[in-house]
Amino acid sequence: MTLAELEQFRDILTERREGLREWLMINESEYAGGAEKVRTLLNEIKDALQHVEAGDFGLCTVCKGEIELQRLETQPVATVCLECITEAERNLLAEELTLAGKIHRALLPQRVEKIDGFEMAVHSVAAGVVGGDYYDFLPATGGGLTRVIIADAMGKGIPAGMVMSNLQGALRVIAEETDSPARLISRVNHWLCRNLPVPKFISLACVGLGSTAGKETKIVHANAGHCAPVLVRGDGSMESFDATGTVIGVHEDFAYEECSTAMHPGDILFFYTDGVTEAENPKGEMFETERLTDLVRTMRRRPMAELVGGVLGELQSFTGRLEFDDDLTVIALRKTG
Fold it and tell me: Percentages helix, strand, coil for the chain, rounded to the nearest 5?
């Protein structure tokens, strides 16, 4: 484990220790049973911190190999790797993973939202039981902008899923107070930096759709280090909504800008995560952005469901696999009138 990783886990353990100590001071006399469990956990944290100082934190006490890093991020007092846990522990872990997967899926929109004046299609799939991709449709408030969100957390599995649950909660609350994509991203970034115990990189793009009345819809967009959404015009020309700021969850003072343009009937907005462009074929070649955008442009006159299905089919043909190594999300919207 690197020095930076050891320092990261020292911070996690220290913060949890202080939180548990505070709980004991307030609740020890009233909740005797809970207090005993907290004292046991404090002892485990003390032992883990000693291993951090010794530089051997994260080593399995049974096989002396490394404990899985993603597991340590959610359970930093773990002392045994997954290969060495008991059968009972393995069954409990399987149950917890199943529950975590259900919770993660419940955080995503349960149906394809309808936005007046637009035809839409969405496909999102996690590489494992829990994924780190997120998307959402945040309705306009007070005649403002309807926001389309796509995001991708660093890593995969439960740690990434936990970060996404925090992101969803913050977005849903803050979106009610502001419709500006740039301000929304700035405030969510500030909230995440204040509330996540360690820095977690999240890329996020937000496009706000104005009133669909008439033949022109104003769109306002901001991009926090995410794969650039592409606007494919009816005539085949394209515009990329490149980053207007860096990823969120790192530093609360990062600034974000927004840009605006307009959509007309036949124009398509296409969002995606890097699970699409970084998918590899057996030769180690990546699918890449140019291949994707050329495909979207070629299929721009098809129904959105067919376009999304065509992209996925091409991706499976390219990789030679039906399943993928990374989380994958695509969203397609066409202005219809």
Answer: 40, 20, 40
Residue ranges per domain, the chain? Answer: 3-85, 109-335
Closest by CA position to 304, among listed 271, 277, 255, 281: 271
The CATH code for residues 109-335 is 3.60.40.10
CB 236 within 8 A of CB 294: no
pLDDT > 90: percent of the chain? 42
User: β-strands 230-232, 238-240: how paired?
Assistant: antiparallel
Quickly state the pLDDT bin for 128 (edges 50, 70, 90): low
The DSSP letter of residue 29 is T
Q: Is 303 left (phi over 0), alpha (psi -120 to 50) or beta?
A: beta
Under 8 Å CB-to-CB from 68, ≥6 apart: which residues? Answer: 81, 82
Tokens of 176: 């009610």
- pLDDT per residue as tens digits for the range 81-93: 888 888 887 777 6
Q: What is the pLDDT of residue 156?
A: 65
Classify domain 3-85 at the CATH class level: mainly alpha
Q: pTM for the complete prediction?
A: 0.74
